[in-house]
Amino acid sequence: MNIVKNLWRTVPAIRSSFGISHNIQNVIRPFSTTITPITNITENMPPLELDKLYKRVELEMRGIDPAVLLSYSWFCVAAASHLGIEVTKNWALRKAEKERHTLLRCVHIYKKHKVQYEIRTYFRFIHLQRLTGSTCDTYLEYIERNLPEGCALKVTKVECQKLPEHIVPPTE
To answer: What InterPro entries would the database entry show (predicted)?
Structure first.
C-alpha cells in the first residue's frame, strides 16, 4: 500500500488520468478478506441424458401442385446439406393419386346429368440417414416452419436403441 501511495505522489500523470488529486483512500481500497467456499457442483446436477440416435428419418411430402412440391424438396435437401445431414434418397411417385367425386347437378331429378370432380395429390419422398436427436429436431423445426401452402409433411423416424439386457448375442 505504501508503494502505491508513493507512486501516486510522484507521478502526476497518473493523478491527472484519474481526475482525482486529493485523497488516495477513495481511489485505492484494500482487497476483500471474505472467502466464499466452493461447493461441489456435481452433487446438485441431474444425471446426464444421452442424445437419441436415428438410423433413418423419412420425409413424405404431399401437395396439390407438383412445381411447389419440387421446389420445397429442393429446399429440404439444401437445408440438409448445410447442416451436414446425409440425404440417401430423394424421389417422387410417377403418377399422382387421383380421387374422384361424382355429384348430381340437380338433387331431385335428372340422374343422367352428373358432374365429376377430381383431386390429384402428388408425393415426394426424402430419406435422411444417421442423425442425432438435436440435429433432427433443429432440421425438422426449420423445414416445418417453411412449409408452403397446399403441402403436407409426414415424418417417420427409425431410432437406434440398446439391446435389452435379457437378449444376449449368440456365442460361437
So the answer is: Ribosomal_uS10_dom (IPR027486), Ribosomal_uS10_dom_sf (IPR036838), Ribosomal_uS10m (IPR040055)
CA dihedral sign of residues 127, 130, 132, 134: negative
Residue 5 grid cell: 501511495
Q: At what angle do helices 133-145 and 66-83 cross, to 10 degrees?
A: 150
For the stretch 38-96, pLDDT in tens is: 666 666 667 778 899 999 999 999 999 999 999 999 999 999 999 999 999 999 999 99
Please choose, from the candidates 53, 55, 57, the residue with its C-alpha nearest in 3D space to the C-alpha of residue 143.
Answer: 57
Nearest CA to 105 among 116, 94, 97? 116
Of residues 71, 70, 66, 79, the one with CA closest to residue 128 = 79
Cβ-based burial of 80 (10 A; exposed 0-12, middle 13-18, buried ≥19): buried
Scan for cell 415424418, then name that residue.
155
Q: Does residue 129 surpass a pLDDT of 90?
A: yes
> 0.90 cut: is pTM over it?
no
Q: Write out the E strands in 48-162.
A: 53-63, 86-92, 97-104, 114-132, 151-160
